[in-house]
Amino acid sequence: MLKILLVPLLAVAASGAAAAALLASPGWWAVAAPLLLLAVTAGHDLVQRRHSVLRNYPLLGHLRFGLEALRPELQQYFIERNFDGRPFDRDVRGIVYERAKGTDAEEPFGTELDLYQSGSEYLAPSMAPRPVPEHPPRVRIGGPACTRPYDMALLNVSAMSFGSLSANAVLALNTGAHAGGFAHDTGEGGLSAYHLRPGGDLVWEIGTGYFGCRTEDGGFDERQFAEKASHPQVKCVSLKISQGAKPGIGGVLPGAKVNAEIARVRGVPQGETVISPPYHRVYSTPRELVRFLARLREPADGKPVGFKLCVGSRRQFLAVCKAMLDEDLTPDFVIVDGAEGGTGAAPLEFADNVGLPLSEGLMAVHNALVGTALRDRIRIGASGKVATGSDIVKRLIQGADYTNAARAMMFAVGCIQAQRCHTNTCPVGVATQDARRARALDVGDKAQRVRRYQEATVKSALQIMASLGVDDPAGLRPHMLLHRVDPHTVRSYAELHTWLTPGQLLASPPESWADDWTTADPDRFTH
Fold first, then answer.
1. What tens digit of pLDDT does each residue of 326-368 get?
2. Which of 25, 158, 235, 426 makes a 20 to 30 Å CA pair with 182?
3. Residue 96 lies in a domain
4. Domain check: are 309 and 434 in the same one?
């Protein structure tokens, strides 16, 4: 309310000062002119559509942009003085913002990264680079039992639920996905009108709470599932087993965010905190998981069905592979979520200490599927701090077929990392159900930013692949990604890791995999 009254209050004050200048003393113009300028600026802030911060915080929001303008100079100051013993890393958020605004360009000077620091990674360019493909490649998702395969883009919107995100944020993401021809994962919060209205392709994610296909007692409702999975915009169905930022516990949506609309979409009581269970009711063994995934395909009308997980135990994933072989049933895709992924609400110790990082999880899943001769039937998606073209290329080398981005997509719609997601007071209208705050996010403007960011990032990935001498992701190999072991030693991923050959686990498991393969049980999740 205060921000709405700000402009008339300033106008009244400016008019009063101007009257005093005309009737009493010209010295009052020193007061009237600044007040009038402030009134005009505040009015413009409220009606402009480019900056959510200014729409929610007229006048005050300019302080943020002033500090942001100083950031490069401040960073350089501290770099030159080696302020904390190391240089700043390149600002990935800045890269996303520039691409989203359509102003991404080459920068002067050299890298800000220390390539001689242990743990640093870089890609090996070829002396015979290839032309950059004119059209980005797509990934066909659909195994032998899938009758309606889907062609996935190299970069897509990762799982973020309506409820965690505002209606305007969801609308902007899906409108951008529709304009750019890439997919939008709904997150586990159900299938809302805001996912469906713009017309973008959807991956409908179903979590342990079964929101959107939930019985009154919290179980899975196949009738509701069939009704919603048949929607033409739903292209794939993903069963969420675990999330990278909080594997082993369910999601949390604070009661302050559970308004009547959220409650209706999720099928839960209004105003009450929603806590998803840490486990699924529909299966308890690897074999039951595989059977349930196969069971979903018929009511999903033959669309691709898969699951998402943060890998913790290689043995348990091998148990799922054994169940696939025994039952001759395979999902169409597996999404590997890295432990470094983000979330709006999770215990800090889980975010920092539980689950495998994306690189290790990807390689474990890829090799397990290759070693069991299932890789050609199942596509792998990767999510967890994927933001740049080089991130995409590295993940493809490590075993993925495509990638998903959440945090970077939030940056594209205006997130400034205020870290108020759980409080319902997001200052830019991204992670809030407060209608007044959400209004600040202009759907049309932010949708174009999402489209531009995705397009520029995929283009960057293709340029990097071409520099490696590759014109198709299928040509990427582990030796193209280098890792500095120590200041004097560099090894490629081909040297550092074991890469299984098709069917190798079935014929003769290597020593490093033998114990896990032997003890993996398709009827028990043995850690």
1. 999 999 999 999 888 666 556 666 666 677 999 999 999 999 9
2. 426
3. no
4. yes
Q: Which residue has the tokens 């030693």?
A: 489
CA distance 279 to 210: 11
What tokens were used for 282?
């529909």
Give the chain's end-to-end CA distance (angstroms, integer): 55
Q: Kindly state whether residues 281 and 165 are assigned to the same domain.
A: yes
The string of pLDDT tens digits covering residues 437-488 is: 888 899 999 999 999 999 999 999 999 999 999 999 999 999 999 999 998 8
Cα 511 from chain centroid (whole Å)? 36
The pLDDT of residue 281 is 94
SS3 382: strand
Q: Are residues 50 and 144 in the same domain?
A: no
Confidence of residue 106 (pLDDT cuts 50, 70, 90): low
Are 356 and 286 part of one and the same domain? yes
- How many angstroms separate the CA atoms of 471 and 457, rounded? 16
By the 8 A CB rule, do 352 and 247 touch?
no
Bridge partners of 337, per DSSP, are 383
Domain range for 166: 139-501
Residue 44 lies in a domain: yes
Let me know if residue 492 belongs to a domain. yes
Determine, yes or no, domain membership for 112.
Answer: no
User: E strands, 98-149, where?
Assistant: 121-123, 139-141
Query: Which residue's structure tokens are 């516990």?
Result: 249
Helix (H, G, I), strand (E, B) or coil at 470: coil
Total residues found in the chain within this entry: 527
User: What is the DSSP track for 49-73?
Assistant: SS-HHHHHSTTTHHHHHHHHHHHHH
Handedness of CA 167, 168, 171, 177 (dihedral sign): negative
The token duo for 270 is: 């209004």
**Residue carrying the six token digits 């020193």:** 30
CA distance 437 to 458: 32
